[in-house]
Amino acid sequence: MPTASHPLKNPDPRFLATETLVDKNAQYVSSRVDKSQKRILHRLEELSNDYAELSTSYTELSLHETGFVSTAIEKLRQAANTSNKEIRCMPDVKDQVGSLEAQFAEQVQEYAQYTQIAKQALQYRRMKHIQLEMISEALDNKKSQLRSLVRIEDEAMRLEAAMNQGEVPGSPTSPVHELGSDDDYDADFETRSIEDGFSTVETLPSKTRQEAAPEDVHYPSGASASAIRASHSQSKKWSSPRKLLSAMSFTLHGMIDADPEATRRNQIRKLRESIEELEKAMVATKEELEIISENIQEDLDLFQKRKESEFRTMLIAYAKIHIKYCEEVLQEWWGVNDQIKAHAQRISDNTGAFTVAPDLYKGKIGANAEEASHLMHQLDWKTAVGELEELTEQLRQAKYPNIGTIGFCVGGGLSLALASKLAETRHPLKAAITCYGTAPGDMFDIRNITKATPVQGHFGGQDKKAGFSDPAAADALEFQLFNNKGVDATIYRYPEQGHAFMNDDAWSIEQRKELGFVGKATDPKNDEKSVRDLAWSRIYEFFTQNLGDHHMEGIEEDV
After folding, report:
1. Do the Cβ atoms of 375 and 366 come closer than 8 Å?
2. Is the pLDDT of residue 202 over 50?
3. According to a count of CB atoms within 10 Å of the terminal CB, is the N or C end of the chain lower?
4. Lowest mean pLDDT segment, chosen from 435-449, 501-515, 544-558
């Protein structure tokens, strides 16, 4: 097998481009994406530690204060502690770090491994291609050697045939012994080497043919050219030690290669065997390369399709995790609980909207009806609406121009209050929904809402919250909205439902029974499912029509 650094002389253009792309992707994922997400996780962990230290510091500081100052410091401590819980893994909180690791970081690492595997597969194919080229080059070299040896063998056979007939090819009238005279001349010329410097060579004068005639040696007709040369070499006179060494070297060579004709024939036979083996290896390697190329191309095409889909899934998960982290979930009168978070997630999943649920209770949650009532009565509506107005402005600056609101219970009233407040500005809400809640008329005039803000309402026919969400309050809201010229308002009533009928988790259902919103012997989760599904379908359609398609942006305010 060739080495990885061996050059490929004739690369396949298709795979050459693929190798470049895979190398680029592998380098980008390993050096940028993977490192970036690891750095984000590390910084989130550091931020969580900072919040934990801040919470501890506020706790210690609150011990040295009393009254209003102590209460304010305690709120700061709770906020810092909540932020710490949202980031770090806690038994009862979905942590951002854990979600990022499971849904994004691990996926990125797997993709990085896939790119390395693809890179190795392409490298293996490249090595196989190089191997095919090396076999082809070796085959060409062997064939060239074979042609050279065959040509020499043919020349030797013609020479031997001519000598056996007593003639030299090209000189049919020359006797054999005249060849020796020419050999003497050649031998004498060859001994004049550069090493001898020519000056130290004593060249004996050559005899004429007549003088040499008595000394002519007659050879058998079957004598080979090498035997004739060996006989001639005995009569040479050496005038230099280097010539003597050359003669010894020639003699040793003759001893080692006593029969050059047989050696040449063996070489020809071995070359033909090698050529046959190389041709078989070349055919097999070429077939393997074709199969490998086909399989790798299929895998790369599949990898490309899955890469696009998986990267889209990873990036969506990454965005949703950060959206969840940025949610400050606003509550019903209970505070920020799992039910409100579920409402926010449901809207985001079914409309594609970017949902933000502000926490107007600043992290506090009512554990029972008494605490929840206390928190709600402490809420300053004008301050709360002012905070929501600031939030909408921040969202617009963050390139979210289409903003709609939805609220439950108190949040429904805040949704209408914000719509009436922003109707007086250049940026009214694009949609406003209330679920069993209205705004106090002495603070907010719903009649300010214009046709720029479509309104939708959902009220239960068995709701007992007089003046706030009962049928009379729903009728009053409908009357006010319909008297506004051009306002698109739809108020839906669900005759058999009581207050908070959109809540379906176990804790919320238990609280509804305790407060008398539903009968204790009923099963609201199953009995009201069809009603909830109908209400949610209307909500999804309303947001989709007024805020845009699946990539719309919206703000959800749940109280």
Report:
1. yes
2. no
3. N
4. 544-558
